[in-house]
Write a structure and sequence with these properties.
21 strands, Elongation Factor Tu (Ef-tu), domain 3, elongated, 3 domains, 11 helices, alpha/beta, Rossmann fold, 7-stranded antiparallel beta sheet
Length: 447
């Protein structure tokens, strides 16, 4: 068996975290290296670091060293393992926290002998997919009422630095009615990691959660592994156990930046603003893992994508917008109803939800939009009509009761709260909604 793991010497260069090695292609006893395979780098008879093959050219192999190359000598040896990165997979991973190398980092019991599943597999054949038709409730009114999260949907939260997007994401992980939550942290500062972990523990949902965390101080190459580890485990749970799995990823811009950093180290030619030309395909390969499997469970992906300089044309949010099915736009500590969109909400509104859902959603947004216009008229010292003043009151209450991120209401209570707000601000005859719905729910609003 030892012959299968032949040690290669002959490191020719060390640039950044990239090691280049010459191998003897005529060694029939050795496992031939393949792209993305893992290797172990050894120095002075001890394991130095895990590495991954990133480039093959004739007898030359380039490897990304997980732990960095500081202290590494050209006299170190390399053993190719003949396998790609794998994720530990069993019922014992629930409640556990793993690093970007796939190993547990929570000081819990060893999982080294548990079964494993290969990561970075192909996406599901479209013929094996089911059309999205089930809602994932989050108890966030701006999502549940106005832009429903649907099973098998892939949707980002667009935000800027300084917004509480991580706090918001942890709240969704706690409140969402998914069977399992798989969390992936990419380049997190320790405080954010601690807050996610503590939030899940305090809410009592860690037992249904699996966490994969790459800290800002961890190797950059592990940052690229985290989404693949999350999605491999989520897919396995959905297909084999029939689970409704919600995958939370933050922040995909950090993922793209890691791709750029490694690409530059590999001397790849950058494309738009320094990012590699395959940015779109690399993002799509991960997002397309979202799926409702025929006869099984589902994988839903909710990610954070930060926009440097609040620039939605930045390559990462720009490419993401073409791949995903809408977005939630986080602005000034609120979910902006004008920038947010769920392209799959029509599959569940009025079908899985109450009959008044569609009408109340459209009416509330219309009056809020008119209220914002009334605010602009007021700011420019135009005369306001009586109805304008009603719109002003409505828009202010709407922000306070629905748009704030700390508002938590089940869908039915949120719909009732919409009727209450309409009744507070307008006369019944002024509200343009089907008379049948007004007769049924307006009374409840006053009752």
């Amino acid at each position: 068996m030892e012959s299968l793991f032949t040690r290669y010497n002959g490191i020719t260069s060390i640039v950044g975290d990239i090691v280049t090695l010459n191998i003897d292609s005529h060694d029939a006893m050795a496992i031939p290296p393949r792209n993305r395979d893992l290797a172990i780098i050894e120095q002075n008879g001890q394991t130095f670091s895990l590495a991954q093959i990133t480039k093959l050219a004739d007898n030359e192999v380039s490897l990304q060293v997980f732990a960095g190359t500081k202290g590494l000598s050209n006299h170190a040896s390399v053993r190719f393992l003949g396998e790609t990165m794998q994720a530990i997979y069993s019922e014992n991973i629930l409640g556990r926290i793993f690093g970007g190398s796939g190993l547990a980092i929570d000081n819990g019991p060893s999982l080294s002998h548990e079964p494993r599943v290969a990561i970075n597999g192909p996406t599901v054949n479209p013929s094996a997919r089911v059309l999205a038709s089930k809602m994932i409730r989050t108890n966030v009114p701006m999502i549940d009422v106005f832009n429903c999260l649907v099973e098998s949907q892939k949707i980002p939260i667009f935000s800027v630095a300084g917004e509480p997007y991580n706090k918001f994401l942890s709240r969704i992980g706690i409140q969402a009615d998914a069977d399992v939550v798989v969390f992936g942290g990419l380049g997190l500062i320790y405080d954010d990691y601690h807050n996610f972990r503590k939030s899940f523990e305090d809410a009592g949902v860690l037992s249904r959660t699996v966490m994969y965390v790459n800290l800002a101080s961890d190797p950059v190459v592990e940052r690229l592994m985290v989404p693949d580890l999350c999605l491999a485990v989520a897919e396995k749970m959905a297909v084999e156990e029939g689970k409704r799995v919600l995958v939370l990823l933050t922040d995909m811009t950090a993922y793209a930046d890691a791709m750029k950093e490694i690409g530059i180290a590999m001397e790849h030619i950058p494309s738009n603003r320094g990012y590699m030309g395959d940015l779109y395909s690399q993002l799509a390969k991960r997002y397309e893992k979202a799926c409702d499997f025929k006869g099984a469970g589902s994988v839903t992906i909710l990610s954070v994508t930060t926009m440097p300089g609040n620039d939605v044309t930045h390559p990462v949010p720009d490419n993401t917008g073409y791949i995903t099915e809408g977005q939630f736009y986080l602005h000034n500590g609120e979910i902006d109803p004008f920038g947010s969109l769920s392209r799959l909400k029509q599959h569940v509104i009025g079908k899985q939800t109450r009959e008044d859902h569609g009408q109340i959603m459209n009416t509330m947004i219309r009056y809020y939009s008119e209220g914002v216009e009334a605010e602009q008229k007021q700011a420019m010292a135009f005369d306001l009509s009586e109805f304008d003043r009603k719109l002003l009151k409505f828009s202010q209450l709407f922000r306070r009761r629905f748009m704030k991120l700390d508002v938590s209401l089940p869908l039915e209570e949120a719909l009732d709260a919409c009727w209450v707000l309409l009744a507070e601000c307008f006369d019944k005859d002024e509200v343009v909604i089907k008379q049948q719905l007004k007769n049924q729910y307006w009374v409840q609003a006053h009752g």
